Amino acid sequence: MIQTDEEKTKVFLCVEAMNCLTRYSEILAFKADEEFSQSIFHEWKDLGIVSPIEQVLYCAIHFVREIQALSHFDMDRLDGEEVCSGFYIKPQYTIGKYRVDFLVEMYPLQKVPQGKAAARKKSVIVECDSQAWHERTEKERRYEKARDRELIRKGYQVFHYTGKEILDDPSAVAAEMVAHVTGATKESILEEIHDYEVNL
To answer: Where are the domains of the chain?
Structure first.
């Protein structure tokens, strides 16, 4: 069977996603108790992340979260009151009538009134714009522009990354969004990643 250029590109991207997962798993093997690659691979399937570009970015976000020692989002009780804090990644998330590739949020420790949602958080919507995985017709571009305007009206910031940006340096892309929601600088996060890799 002869593959088209588009099919070859999709196969290449799937291989890149697995290579990214393997690389980050090997780096984190010395740090994490759990098997990083198994966990992320199953999350791809469970959360419906089928685009290899999104898989690479999801893996990179978790890698940066681990290096930064950011806790997963959690609700708990403290002195008899509900509290929450942590880092939350919501892939394929629906806001109103629109689906976004990722909603990334950081919740500072806060009390949560009964029956209410956590009020304070820093968020960013992340869109992965891969020419190989997504067709770009005029209708689709108009839809995306209308979606971005609506999300901005609702108070969200929207970061767009090309597939090439993500594949060229997934850690840098993830560091930028993690920096945005945590208040750290992208440079300090990248330096910490570099230091961690050098000291293995």
So the answer is: 5-198
